Amino acid sequence: MSSYLTSVLIFTGINLIAVLGMFLLMGLTGLLSFGQVGFMAIGAYAAALGYTKFGLPFGIGLLIGIVISLLVGLVIGTVTLKLKNDYFALATYGFSEVIKNVLIYFSSFTGGSMGVFGIPASVTLPLVAVIFLVGLVITRNFKVTKLGRNSLAIRNDELAAQVMGINVFKHKLSVFLLSAVFGSVAGSLLAFATYYIEPNLFDWNRSISLIVIVFFGGINSLTGAVTAGLALTLLPEVLHFGAEWRMVIYTFIIIVTMIFRPTGLFGRWEISGRQMMDWFRNRGQRSAARGRG
Amino acid sequence: MKNEQGTILHVDNVTMRFGGVVAVNGANIRLRRGRLAGIIGPNGAGKTTMFNLISGVYTPVEGEIRFKDQAITGKSPDEITHLGISRTFQNIRLFEGLNVYDNVKMAASCRSEYSFLEAILGLPKVWKLEREVASEVEYYLDLVGLSGYEKVWPENLAYGLQRKLEIARALASKPELLLLDEPAAGLNPTEVQELMEIIRHIHKELDITILLIEHHMDMVMSICEELWVMNFGAVIANGDPESVQQDPEVLKAYLGS
Ligand SMILES: Nc1ncnc2c1ncn2[C@@H]1O[C@H](COP(=O)(O)OP(=O)(O)O)[C@@H](O)[C@H]1O
Ligand SMILES: [Mg+2]
Questions:
Q1: What is the CATH number of domain B92-174?
Q2: How much distance in Å is there from the Cα of B231 to the middle of ligand 1?
Q3: 3-state secondary structure B134-151
Q4: What is the CATH number assigned to the segment(s) B1-84+176-257?
Q5: What is the ipTM of this complex?
Q6: Whole-model pTM?
Q7: Which tens digits make up the pLDDT trace of A230-254?
Q8: Which of A147, A153, A174 sits opposite B95 (nearest CB)?
Q9: Do domains B1-84+176-257 and B92-174 have the same CATH topology?
Q10: Residues of chain B with pLDDT under 70
Q11: Domains with residue ranges and CATH for chain A
């Protein structure tokens, strides 16, 4: 595989991990968050600074990023998740901007707007693939157990959900923390997939791109979110769109989706093992029938 | 030993105000365990507010509510549901993002003893409990006559079936006290008859206490063992249907004299 293709796939995989977090939060639970990029920044800087300042290996930096993200997420979530969803969205935007500015301000430690140099680009495609698959299984388990049902119930009717026995705040907080972990892990991987990170890498339109992907693929469909994540990360890369065009294209996608397919490209459809088995079996039977006929 | 005669619900001098509106005014209710009872009264009398107070949607400004001799005033709706009270809504509130089956399963699995972490890791225990819940769901769907509709989206159900689904969902959280807010509203006479049979059957089969709101006198008279009559936020009469029907206060409230 060419090194260009490998690197495109690595960045796509990393983006998909962040998409999973956004799918849980915004897709299933209905919590629009502009803060995912803040957790990516935390994960990236924890891993990068852990290495450049303290010589910590990637795995330890990744874990430190997760712990910091959980603590920060706990504080942010506790303060904002009791607010109405609109205010929560605003507050998460503020949070990601604060993170970015903190990184710029404490420049003697973080390198400020110059960023952090000298990170070994040691993340490989198999590692990203394995972590993505673990994330995918976690997200799928979330969706098919009571966690997914509770999320959808909350998204649909918070009061009825509470009356049916869900501790709405606690559930939202748990989902927020889980999505923070996904963001943080994606960030750590991102840092170790390049030699260099800087605060502007974690601009708020990175959160927007995650939102667009989940919205486009279908807020109810994990299959849709992942497919949209693949398409919308790979296509601009393959077609060599500049970053300046990306926002225009995203806006276009949102408008077209809202008009023609408000439930997202995939609606509620999920690919399932059984469906695939049936499909293969039918095909087998058809070809067997052809053979006989 | 099960105390048939025990009081399962105490509503003591409860008052609720919305701005200047006194929706419930010093109301008292003592509901015996095992009863199939009703609250009646004209529109705006405060019946739904009473349910909102009992289920924790609102906290009363005065008075106390006790369930199984435990104060529940100020507890949140989810805590109260876990203590054993469940309800339906006057204006149906099903979860449109979930199909019929999952609407009921959501309520049933709220008591499933697996944690967030166990669920996302997909431990065997989780799938075992999910399978157990699945059979409960079938039971409750069957109880209200909704077997065969599992995959349907609630918004595509006929109105009468939506009402039944709400009852199944409420039952799935395994309440000891079930609150039904105008379960017959919007149904045609045949559907009302059928619903009455279902409610009677549920009451006997599950051995639970049921308190329902209705303003159709005929339905209430035929299935309720005890009634409370509300008017302008106050409880103006209480007793068995026959005596309530002859109560001068009640006649006045209903005939508006
Ligand atoms: N959330 C609320 N805010 C303001 N007023 C309310 C609210 N809920 C109920 N009310 C008022 O309280 C009174 C009783 O309403 P309700 O309990 O719904 O009556 P019922 O169910 O007996 O028809 C009405 O005047 C209603 O307008
Ligand atoms: Mg009412």
A1: 3.40.50.300
A2: 12
A3: HHHHHHHHHHCCCCCCCC
A4: 3.40.50.300
A5: 0.93
A6: 0.91
A7: 988 887 777 776 667 777 777 888 7
A8: A153
A9: yes
A10: 1-5, 255-257
A11: 3-292 (1.10.3470)
